[in-house]
Batch of 3 targets.
Target 1
Amino acid sequence: SFPETHGITFRIQISVKELLDTDVLLKLLFHLPINYPSTLPDISVNSDQLTRAQCMDVKDKLLEQAKKHLPEPMVHDLILWIQQHLKYVIKQSATVCNENTTLSKGASTENGIWMLLLHLDHMRAKAKYVKTVEKWASDLRLTGRLMFMGKIILILLQGDRSNIKEYLILQKTSKVDVDSSGKKCKEKMISVLCETKVQSQHKRFQTFEVKEYSTLDALQKEFETAGLTAFFSEFVPPLLK
């Protein structure tokens, strides 16, 4: 355990629903060092419903979130965050285990991976918008590209189908941009070019990256590398008109 003499330690138990319809009881222990919140708390996570690896995943994700809050007090926010995101964290660590088992049977591991291609009309507050998209992709564990080529803005995402759906809801309901007068506004000019199951010939993106392309050829290469040439020729040229 942590040395009790320094800072304060408190335990909290939260029950999280929605996970395979069972309640997960998370036992969280936060140890706040003397110079908290300018340093991160120590966190330990236990739960009878989760494996050790899943508890470690939860802890890692909480620490990742905690870094974003420095140097503000963060424990309350972390507790709210894990209540909302536990299912994604667990789903991810569950898929990792399953992939190994299905591979050995020679079965397809792509049963739940979907792909989404979005076209945005413009980004006025580009830096903030890009940050938001990156954060959503990371929170929902989606990989892919945010692509800029001239006036064209495309978002290509791959991930769990329910997370892709969740992303679309965020994209349509959050105030991600500003209007011409600088007021925050929701995204109205977005079109879903395609939403489909990832096929075996499609390459999986390992990360989510923001990229700028100076030519259409460069953009096309990005699609080709991912085994998505057909998608490029079907959806991108019409945008140039």
Target 2
Amino acid sequence: MASVASSVTFKEFCPLYYLLNAIPTKVQKGFRSIVVYLTALDTNGDYIAVGSSIGMLYLYCRHLNQMKKYNFEGKCESITFVKLLSCFDDLVAVGTASGRVAVFQLVSSLPGRNKQLRRFDVAGIHRSSITALAWSPNGMKLFSGDDKGKIVYSALDLDHGVCNSSLVLEEPSSIVQLDYNQKVLLVSTLQRTVLFYTEEKSVKQVGTQPRK
């Protein structure tokens, strides 16, 4: 007979000082000293991704105990959402306060995996803050939502370095969560939750009452 594990009421975890100490608390911009705020977080078994208010993505590799930094060229703006994915290659999608979305295809030391850092941009569709990102399990599809209710689908061809994006859905309120599985995109907004069937391009609302 299998033993029943005892229930745990409290469990304490120590702060990740090794991670926090690798991220500066301030940076110098000309004559100004700017405080760095941590604005977004995602984790998986391989990485811890932390977005910041200065537009810098800090990516900590758990296996190598190394911190790497990635940023957007041009204007320094706050990162609002990050989403990791481990499939054949390791990917991280990043969204910003102005609506920029970028995908980083990470370098791997494993044989047959990606050997050069590559970046893909979702350009010119979002015009406001990114509030949600969702991957397909194989890394070929990325969905991004913003605080104006727009949802963009990006098809990635990692072998040829191509990213094609299009607007697939517009909701009347801010997107708060996205999740994708088996050709169905779950969309939660400030007002309602819907299922978007990507093949039929049809929408089915979950429940009947609007969210207050």
Target 3
Amino acid sequence: DFFVLTLTGDSDEHRLSPAAIADVLSSLREAKSQATRGSVLITTSQGRFFSNGLDLGWARSAGSRSEAAERLNHMVDSFRPIVAELIYLPMPTVAVVQGHAAAAGFVLALCHDYVLMRSDRGVLYMSEVDLGIPLPDYFTVLFRAKIGSVSARRDALLRGTKIRGADAARLGIVDGVKGSEEELKDAGILLAEQLAARKWDGEIYKVIRQSLYPELCGVLGLGVSKPVLSKL
């Protein structure tokens, strides 16, 4: 019942280029089309990074500042449907963050229902304030929806704090930390097995998730589905 989405590539930064964004989106839609009761999505990666965010190198290679800005805006717009798919996916989702998750990589992790992280390696980092790049509206709304602590959001978004595993767990950003890659992998599988064993109706699960984040659904241009109470 598991769908395992693993970010791979020649560079272990797993930058979200237009091609990578398209591949991730296609994979999520494939998982959605095959979902059954008890399905669970696990997202992870290989190497030192979970994802180092949008491919700024590709944007900067455009040749001029205006063209670079156009490329960056294109990636921001292209990444939005990934966030939407994860909010609409009819199954529980688990991000197993075994390395650094920066900018859109942090956002990608935060889109999942559960986030697990290593305590010995990797940070969560929103680099936009350091790079001088404004935040897309749906990034900001996602942080408000997913991180309850005002000071944690402030430090992440306005201070560019690099948050390690233990602090992320203390702040309620992640659901657990493990001391090694193997322990983290095992914890992710165990959590997925526990979720899959409940055999929930994926469409109902999706509707309940949507109802938790109405502002985010609105910014993403998604209507909140109305549940069909067919089993009463």
